[in-house]
Amino acid sequence: MLRLEPTVDVVGLAADTAAAITLASDLQPDIVCVDVTMPDGLLIVRRLGTVARGCSVVALGIAETDRDVVACAEAGVAGFITRDQSLSEAVSVVQGVARGELACSARTAAALLRRVAVLSTQREPAAAPDGLTPREREIVELIALGRSNKQIARELCIELSTVKNHVHHVLEKLGVPGRAEAATRLRAQARE
């Protein structure tokens, strides 16, 4: 159905987990739509993050239960197409994800916000001894793994500008001139 849409370029179609992973690895698409109702649906979503870096995933066929929505979000999904959405709505979701937006229904957004509220009650202390917040430490850890700001934004499901702000604050707090030095400082602290 998406092939009929002039604004969407379908580059491949896979019928099973192995084919999906192979195709994504070979083609490096911008967006992959995954039927999360398949037995390995969430496994595919997680694996895509390692074989098709920078690709965003749209979950197809999601039942808007809190459990399913949160499981998809935790696996790294950037957009949600429910079972009852029309083709035009599905295309809108794909286009939104292509623009870097989290695309979902109001009901799905509500489930995600409920999860965020639960997580906020379990939050770590505001800052570590080095002055970094848990999110800033997470970003430095991703920098140490060689991730770009854009990759970090996608992996953490936050805006690129937010990542840039965090990186700026990290460099200020650690008193280092660049990303490499921040990663080196983090590694040195881990050895202590």
Commentary on this structure:
The protein is mostly helical and 192 residues long. It folds into two domains: 119 residues, Rossmann fold; 58 residues, Arc Repressor Mutant, subunit A. Helices cover 56% and strands 9% of the residues. It is built from nine helices and three strands; from the N terminus they run H-E-H-E-H-E-H-H-H-H-H-H. The chain has a three-stranded parallel β-sheet, with helices on both faces. The protein is globular.
Kindly list the characteristics that best describe this protein:
single chain, 192 residues, 9 helices, Rossmann fold, three-stranded parallel sheet, Arc Repressor Mutant, subunit A
What topology emerges from the helices and strands here?
Layout: H1 17-27, E1 31-35, H2 41-51, E2 56-62, H3 66-75, E3 77-82, H4 87-98, H5 106-121, H6 134-144, H7 149-156, H8 160-174, H9 179-191
Parallel strand pairs: 1-2, 2-3
Strand tally is: 3
Strand order of the largest sheet: 1-2-3
Which range best describes the helical content: under 10%, 10-25%, 25-40%, 40-55%, 55-70% or over 70%?
A: 55-70%
DSSP summary: helix tally: 9
How big a fraction of the residues is strand? 5-15%
**What structural category characterises the helix and strand content?**
mainly alpha
- Along the chain, the helix and strand elements come as HEHEHEHHHHHH
In quaternary terms, these chains amount to single chain
Distance between the termini: 56 Å
Q: On the 0-100 scale, what is the average pLDDT? A: 86
CATH architecture of the largest domain: 3-Layer(aba) Sandwich
CATH superfamily of the largest domain, called what? Response regulator
CATH topology of the largest domain: Rossmann fold
